[in-house]
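Chapter review: from sequence to fold.
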Amino acid sequence: MDTKNATNSSELPETVQLAEQKFQSETQQRSLVPKGITIGLAVFALVLSLAGYGFRLMVGDDTGDVLRHAAVIVPAFMLGIPLFFWVGSRILNKVKGMHIEGWNAISLGYLTSCISMLWLMGTYS
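The token string follows.
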């Protein structure tokens, strides 16, 4: 058997190694969730978080009470939960060496936010 002509994986031509590195960097930088879905989830979360306040104002609740409640709830669901998931992904990336895309974490945060609001609406309806 001729072992002199056998190629080793470390002896690949330079163009093949560059193509392999490019493919690996592209697969690592890709986000699984399209940005349109994340934006759609954000809009849906905003609609859900504001949905009950118009009804409360039509029924006759005090405007100041409604606005104070909205000033706490809307940012908590629109910013707090997605930010919590994004920070968690950054921590896991640093501590555990995982590769969680920030955009995917934000998408999961908005999805969790929408599910939480729907669950709360179902509980109190």
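Two observations follow directly from the output. The helical segments are 14-29, 35-59, 63-95, 102-124. The chain has a mean pLDDT of 83.
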